[in-house]
Design goal:
By secondary structure, the protein is α/β, with parallel strands linked by helices. It folds into two domains: about 5-120 and about 210-235, Peroxisomal Thiolase, Chain A, domain 1 (3-Layer(aba) Sandwich), CATH 3.40.47; about 135-210 and about 235-384, Thiolase/Chalcone synthase (Peroxisomal Thiolase, Chain A, domain 1). It contains 13 helices and eleven strands. It has helices at about 25-40, 60-70, 85-100, 120-125, 140-155, 160-175, 190-195, 220-230, 255-270, 285-295, 305-310, 325-330, 340-350; strands spanning about 5-10, 45-50, 75-80, 105-115, 195-200, 200-205, 210-220, 235-240, 280, 365-370, 375-384. The strands form two sheets. The protein has a nine-stranded mixed beta sheet, sandwiched between helices. Strands 5-6 form a two-stranded antiparallel ribbon.
Length: about 375
């Protein structure tokens, strides 16, 4: 795989509940950190891709507002929306813009200020992420959708509530070490198992939290990257796939086919196999989502993902460290910013700059970012 496009700067705001500023100020926090990381000026940015789920935004067409505030006029700006996978979709678009030769350097800015609306309004909008004619009217919300996935996995493979709780225990261990995470408390196994039920079998600690936050990924072609960065991180493989919006249209609920197909594409493009990955960030909006990701990404055979968490293989010192920044479960999940945050974590890992959560010698990292209830799947492989 030729090294044609690199990530040369990454940034992220703290993920918080109830951010006091505006969306433009929130985006600026991540953009400033990424620009400082890349040691660039706004004049160096050829285009921007702004990523959010607009049903949470009071500002219509936020890309224009944010580009203006960040000093990115008159460069072109674009808006991308693939719900929770928006910013990795933005990275795919930026990669294409750079590979085509239209732009040398592109900034991908993801954000979400979910506190702009109430929790009830947020749940209603999440419900409308399903088919509004054939599925949403039944009132199914995100926890219930993933609870169906959990029940299917339990039934087919014999996984248990304890296996899901073990995933949250790992998440909380590393969330404590992440100063940008919204939830920085350790969760004991008994605490996770005894928590209140949200949608059986999922309990409170099986679910990620809404949050306000922003992320930024600056990408460049090979010539620019080598001229600007001492440690460019290369985009080695990209995969993307979709699935029927209605769950009734899917073959099985014990995994996400869009993630499996996206992973196959990314591995093929990068010329690597699952066992070559040194560290991974997966979309753990619910504990069952991380368990399914182990299997969809090929880290374990279907039904064998539980062995990874039971044996501690997804911890920093395990066979395949996963979500050692706390994942969505501890960091929080500001929809449009999530994928960019995952990429930031992997970039820091590959540069050896991840501090207390550094995976020793990490050279190849993977990002798995899902939109909706397995509707959109993005997998990105990054290399040192």
């Amino acid at each position: 795989m030729p090294k044609d496009v690199a990530v040369i700067g990454v940034g992220q705001s703290a993920f918080v509940r109830g951010y006091q500023g505006s969306i433009r100020e929130l985006a600026f926090e991540a953009f400033r950190e990424a620009m400082q990381d890349a040691a660039m000026s706004v004049a160096d940015i050829g285009a921007s891709v702004v990523c959010s789920a607009p049903e949470y935004d009071k500002q219509r067409s936020p890309s224009g507002l944010i580009a203006e505030y960040l000093g990115l006029n008159p460069q072109p700006t674009f808006v991308i929306e693939n719900v929770c996978s928006s910013s990795t979709s933005g990275v795919r678009v930026a990669y294409s813009l750079i590979k085509s030769g239209l732009h040398d350097v592109v900034a991908v800015i993801g954000f979400q200020k979910m506190s702009e609306i109430t929790s009830a309004e947020s749940q209603e909008r999440m419900g409308r992420g399903a088919d509004i004619i054939w599925e949403s009217p039944f009132g199914t919300m995100m926890p219930a959708y993933y609870a169906m996935h959990a029940r299917a996995h339990f039934t087919q493979y014999g996984s248990t509530e304890k296996d899901l709780a073990l995933i949250r225990v790992k998440s909380s261990k590393y969330g404590v070490l992440n100063n940008k995470a919204v939830y920085r408390k350790e969760v004991a196994l008994e605490q996770a198992l005894d928590a209140g039920v949200v949608s059986s079998p999922l309990k409170v600690f099986d679910c990620c939290a809404n949050a306000d936050g922003a992320s930024c990924v600056i990408m460049a072609n090979a010539d620019k990257a080598k001229g600007i960065s001492n440690q460019p991180v290369w985009v080695m493989g990209l995969g993307a796939a979709t699935a029927p919006m209605n769950l009734a249209g899917r073959d099985a609920l014990s995994g996400l086919n869009c993630a499996r197909l996206a992973a196959q594409q990314a591995y093929e493009m990068a010329g690597v196999r699952p066992r070559d990955i040194d560290v991974a960030e997966v979309h753990d909006c619910f504990t069952i989502a991380e368990l399914m990701a182990y299997e969809n990404l090929g880290f374990a055979e279907p039904g064998k993902g539980v062995e990874l968490i039971r044996n501690g293989e997804t911890y920093i010192d395990g066979k395949i460290p996963v979500n050692v920044d706390g994942g969505l479960l501890s960091k929080g999940h500001p929809i449009g910013a999530t994928g960019g945050s995952q990429i930031r974590t992997i970039v820091l890992q590959l540069r050896g700059e991840a501090g207390a959560i550094q995976v020793p010698g990490a050279e190849l990292g993977l990002v798995h970012n899902i939109g909706g209830v397995g509707i959109y799947g993005n997998v990105i492989i990054l290399g040192r």
